[in-house]
């Protein structure tokens, strides 16, 4: 008998998408299938109130979450997102995708994720620091280098990780750098971490292109999201002969039929906060973005953006999921039927967590590697993981996403079986 869950998945929402992805894997799990309910429930979910004194002297309250979806294979690992619309359900899905990602790439971590419901643009730096510190203190009992290790995600960065590390360390009475990754270099951060996710997107994209016989030279790339991940991926595609012809972010969509100048666009975004107003391209209607002809479509912003109607319209050879959960299950089916290869998020964007793993290892040993070493190890781990997923997909005649889930779920559930159940 299994009792009902309090949390109901909103139809079409990220948790429903994740549950459906898990259901698709059941037929391929063999005897491990008896453990599958483990993956359908987060191990632990914490909701915290974050009260702070605002700059005007009044008291503000923000809601924060930390979800540890699964800790069977190691401590929790996953980012912290600051966003106006972040919700427990979203964080649950993101934590679950971290379980799958860490297992798919064979990192010794479980899956976790955090979020604070705040619009960072609407608070001052001082207020942001207070929110970060109080949030860290509130989740302090369940995080730690051997428990759960947060990292940056949407709207969080190295500075926020530094505040988290400092707060945790102050509470613990010693400097504990390994509690978060994605820290500044001075505080035990790793070289290569800021661009690692974008690098992974490119490395996997390059390998996928070889498999699809799509030459990289002159290939057209269309990107949604030009933040940490999107801009680093754009830079590498551009450096290797591909042409980024369209970029969409929260401020608008810019298009150039030949090639956007990535360096200038990055500078423009630093100066103005978004791609809108960039003079090296024309501003087009956001909805037209999904119909631009290209070889690579790279969603690198938020989840759920590639739905069924958009999947029918897109004109791409390969979709590389730099964002987490950008494609709905219905869209997945349409893209599969249309012969468009979808490289799933759990492999495509695993570069960040892989270098976070390196950072965590380096912090434990207090011995730091060179950027060349980091990048070589990163490329090797990602390519081994991707090739294993491709071989699984071919062997079972399934999509890359289902194959990545088969590989990952089998690893997590085998570990579950080996550990046995407490008590
Ligand atoms: P970021 O905050 O640096 O950038 C987010 C980008 O998305 C910005 O360009 C923003 O303008 C754009 N965006 C936001 N709302 C949008 C909208 N409604 N329409 C179009 N664009 C919009 O975040 P990031 O770190 O680059 O993360 C992007 C995605 O990659 C997320 O899904 C995140 O979970 C995933 N991811 C990030 C990492 C990492 O290391 N940072 C690792 C793995 C996965």
Describe this structure in words.
- With 423 residues, the chain is α/β, with parallel strands linked by helices.
- It is globular, with a radius of gyration of 21 Å.
- Among the domains are: 43-174, Leucine Dehydrogenase, chain A, domain 1 (Rossmann fold, 3-Layer(aba) Sandwich), CATH 3.40.50; 196-327, Rossmann fold (3-Layer(aba) Sandwich).
- α1 (14-25) runs parallel beside α2 (88-104), α1 packs across α13 (400-419) and α3 (125-138) crosses α4 (158-172).
- It starts with 13 loop residues before the first helix and ends with a helix.
- The mean pLDDT is 97.
- The longest helix is centred in the last third of the chain and has 26 residues, at 371-396.
- α2 (88-104) links the parallel β3 and β4 (111-117).
- The protein has 13 helices and 12 strands.
- The strands form 2 sheets. A 7-stranded mixed β-sheet has the order 9-8-7-6-10-11-12.
- 42% of the residues lie in helices and 17% in strands.
- The protein has helices at residues 14-25, 88-104, 125-138, 158-172, 196-212, 228-239, 262-272, 308-313, 329-337, 345-348, 351-365, 371-396, 400-419; strands at residues 44-53, 59-70, 76-83, 111-117, 148-152, 220-224, 243-249, 252-255, 282-284, 296-299, 318-320, 341-343.
- Nicotinamide-adenine-dinucleotide is lined by residues 152-155, 197, 224-230, 248-250, 274, 300-302, 322-324, 349, 352.
- Residues 152-155, 197, 224-230, 248-250, 274, 300-302, 322-324, 349, 352 line the site of nicotinamide-adenine-dinucleotide.
